[in-house]
Amino acid sequence: MSSSAVTVEPLILGIxxxxxxxxxxxxxxxxxxxxxxxxxxxxxxRFGGVVPEVASRAHLEAMVPTIRRACETAGIKxxxxxAVAVTSGPGLAGALLVGVAAAKGLALSLDKYEQDQVVxxxxxxxxxxxxxxxxxxxxxxxxxxxxxxxxPKLLAMLEKERQALLKKRVEEGYGGRQRIxxxxxxxxxxxxxxxxxxxRPRIVMQVDAQGTPSLEFLDEExxxxxxxxxxx
Length: 232
Fold this sequence. Notes:
Layout: E1 11-16, E2 21-28, E3 31-39, H1 41-45, H2 52-74, E4 83-86, H3 93-109, E5 117-126, E6 129-138, H4 144-156, H5 159-171, E7 178-184, E8 190-195, E9 201-207, E10 213-218, E11 224-229
Parallel strand pairs: 1-4
Antiparallel strand pairs: 1-2, 2-3, 5-6, 6-7, 7-8, 8-9, 9-10, 10-11
Helix pairs in contact: 2-3, 3-4
């Protein structure tokens, strides 16, 4: 490639629905082109706080208009988008589900590169512990239409039941098996975990909280077959 060649930075559309606001942003490289927000705060005011079910329905109603407004502000067409980013957690399960389903639909319909994997940046906090990192997962082979058809049923469930179902689906690989994780674990270690097609950890590289490195090779049952470094 000649030094005079022009490199076009990727155009990314981001969706945020973790609480009561539907947010859509569009960036070209590091330049923000549009930032559209739809708030449902008035719908929650009479309850004295955010109601998860109300927030989920508000996101459903606002999603398409907010995406359209962001595209108009940025002066682009949806087909110009190179990648779609979305908040998958932490947040209200039902609200997140709406954003993730919208992002999947966009990614599948606008997939100009015919990719079969999903890249996720995530951050999670619980009981004073934090985990964050980069996840690469296989994209599920089933039709997105199945998720869309089932969405009303999920939104009608109690929040506790929906959380339990979504957790079970993650464990079963419903949304695509995780293949690679790179980031910080809750025990403050830094890890690179590589998994097989069934989502089972097979290679784990880690630097623990004390700075000690280790490398483990696991079999299909999760048992060590070889290890180097700490605790070998």
